[in-house]
Amino acid sequence: MNKTVAFSKNSVNVFFHILTQCNLNCRHCYINPAQHGSKTLSIETVTAWLRTFLDTHREANLILLGGEPTLHPHLDQIIFAAREMGYDSITIDTNGYLFHDILTRITPTDVDFISFSLDGATAETNDAIRGNGCYDKCLAGLRAAVRRGFKTSLIYTISNDNIGELEMMPAFLENLGVNRFFIQVIGIRGKSAGPGRDHLQVDRQNWLSLIPQIAERVSESGITVTYPKVFLAPEERFECAGRVADNYFIFPNGRVYRCPLCEDYPLHSLVFKDDRLYETARINETDLFCLDIPEGCVMNKLVQPGNLSYGEDGNPEYKIACCLLKEEVPGKSA
Ligand code: SF4
Ligand code: SF4
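Above: inputs. Below: predicted complex with iron/sulfur cluster.
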């Protein structure tokens, strides 16, 4: 059975883009160097910034991102430092190329998960989105990580370009050895917000008829599945994570956002200067979090309204959930 993962102030989730450089050029990439910078942060800066979010009374979760985080020459040292300073869980999100022999420089006890991004069940679909050769490379990296005993996840970002292959994923995942499957939904930001990309968003009917049942089927192989809620049922309450949870999305130019949908704009509510975290001047994303609108998420309505629908009376037919609200289906043991 699926359950909604409630927002909580009892943990802090740090999504840290330690560089924006990447070896790939995926057509839905959300990294926007004009807004996020193009620096590779030094280990000293990364550790100084990481310390800011620690609080002995709360669980701290770190997700290391890029660009491609394994391109960072000191990723291993960043991981050791984060563990030593008290991060409870550490995940690396990678495209699977695993630069700098990262699998030989860390052990499965140093990280909780390595997450691999694959956007199709076949090379044809995945490589059309992510680039030629990515499918084979990602799967080779994932298998190498599994062989070495790392816990792994697969992340599949759904759009109308690849939703057709989701049906193939339960069988595909059965013998891959991954522990978790993350279904993500395409965000209309970065390259996906560019011209000619209007068709990407999946409609409500498609989402509700497909995603929960695929998640159930994948979970039968013992894999825990997480997917975004996206569409709220009438009886479900809307909540903005910006008001009730502690998530931080950090970029190499020092910007820190609380909401990923704001990342294409200078709306960040926090910024690092000289390794200290400051609040930014209003108006910023914080001013959006407190707006109550009948469509649910304000930023969704502003930047990706293609998933909304209105009745003849002009009222929205449903609400859009916070993009950070997830459903989880635990893996079923045999
Ligand atoms: S692997 Fe990630 S960071 Fe690199 S281009 Fe693709 S989406 Fe962007
Ligand atoms: S996605 Fe919407 S609901 Fe979630 S934090 Fe951003 S503005 Fe708030």
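The CA atoms of residues 76 and 105 lie 6 Å apart.
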